[in-house]
TrEMBL record:
It catalyses: L-cysteine + L-glutamate + ATP = gamma-L-glutamyl-L-cysteine + ADP + phosphate + H(+). Residues 12-330 form the Glutamate--cysteine ligase domain. Pfam families: Glu_cys_ligase (PF04262). Signal peptide: none annotated. Its EC number is 6.3.2.2. The keyword Nucleotide-binding applies. It comes from hydrothermal vent metagenome. This is glutamate--cysteine ligase. InterPro entries: Gln_synth/guanido_kin_cat_dom (IPR014746), Glu_cys_ligase (IPR007370), Glut_cys_ligase (IPR006334). One of its GO terms (biological process) is glutathione biosynthetic process.
Length: 330
């Protein structure tokens, strides 16, 4: 397999110059918890000086009001993406430093001091229909999986090959069919390979072996006690990617599993999950005492609820579902 990859890369370089992947599109999404100077989860609203989290293109919130999310635009090189992220974070640091609470951004992915589920404020996006929908969706996540797991921060790396790459690669692969079909097939092949070998990234580069004891809320654990406030695992790489990290441990019993064999099987599996009721979620209720507690009682409220280490994306039009966008434009 490695020999085939080397041959492909060599041929691409010979046909396309020294940089066949130049002008790739790269984007970063980084989440960081706002915390008090003592390290407790911030109970304040998303700062007004940072703009509206519903409409701001670069600074928003994820699950919680306290979980700030930084979004870069698509960049054509890694330094540009990192510089944009750095400058945006510095702006937020300046805003937080000027506020009377003197909050900070928590540096690691596993949360700081968490005083139980009720101490985690769900993100608010205003009274518009899109804003209310986003809040109700998050309320549903809390009922389904617990709020504590939802405030585990992460970094998302978005990548698209340059347009000029695909004609060269299609010729190399001697694929006579439609180019967009070819592109989709190759992206799904990449996804399957990353799912096979993705464990190698946290194994080699993971550096998160410790977690605040408050995160487990007194539950039994096999982790070792480092001190009065901290659990750790000797030689651990990334607790976030482990059993206590961000995951959907109900996936098997719910019967939802995305099928990455092709674009068609992937979209069909997710659309089925968004249309199939699940008994445990029906028990929660959708509208309880006049308030929406979740968007619906289906296996997935929306497609984005499905958690995976990697997922295909297409820019969506207004009111368009992600799967429909993928089916229409690849």
């Amino acid at each position: 397999m490695y020999r085939i990859a080397e041959q492909r890369l060599s041929t691409l370089v010979n046909r396309g110059g020294n940089r066949p992947l130049a002008k790739s599109r790269i984007g970063l999404e980084k989440e960081s918890l706002r915390v008090s100077p003592e390290g407790h989860l911030a109970q304040t609203h998303h700062p007004v000086a940072l703009g509206s989290p519903l409409t701001h293109p670069y600074i928003t919130t994820d699950y919680s009001e306290a979980l700030t999310e930084f979004v870069t635009p698509p960049c054509t090189d890694i330094p540009s993406a990192l510089n944009f992220l750095r400058d945006t974070q510095q702006f937020v640091y300046n805003v937080l430093a000027a506020a009377p609470e003197h909050e900070r951004l928590w540096a690691t992915s596993m949360p700081c001091v968490v005083a139980g589920e009720t101490s985690i404020p769900i993100a608010q996006y205003g009274d518009s229909n899109p804003g209310v929908m986003k809040t109700v969706y998050r309320r549903g996540l809390g009922h389904r999986y617990g709020r504590v797991m939802q405030v585990i921060a992460g970094v998302h790396f978005n990548y698209s090959f340059p347009d000029a790459f695909w004609p060269l690669y299609q010729e190399l692969e001697q694929h006579p069919g439609n180019r967009q079909t070819f592109i989709s097939e190759q992206y799904f092949g990449l996804i399957r390979n990353l799912q096979r070998f993705g464990w190698l990234v946290p194994y080699l580069f993971g550096a998160s072996p410790a977690v605040c004891k408050s995160f487990l809320g007194g539950q039994p654990t096999l982790l070792d006690s480092f001190d009065e406030h901290t659990y750790f695992q000797p030689f651990a790489t990334s607790l976030r990617m482990g059993d206590i990290g961000y995951q959907n441990n109900k996936e098997a019993e719910m019967g939802v599993k995305a099928n990455y064999d092709s674009l068609e099987t992937y979209t069909a599996s997710l659309m089925k999950a968004t249309e199939t009721p699940y008994s445990e979620f029906e028990k929660l209720g959708v509208v309880v005492n006049g308030r929406y507690e979740q968007l619906n009682a289906n296996i997935l409220q929306i497609e984005n609820e499905y958690y995976s280490t990697i997922r295909p994306k297409q820019i969506v039009d207004p009111f368009e579902k992600p799967s429909h966008a993928l089916l229409r434009r690849g």
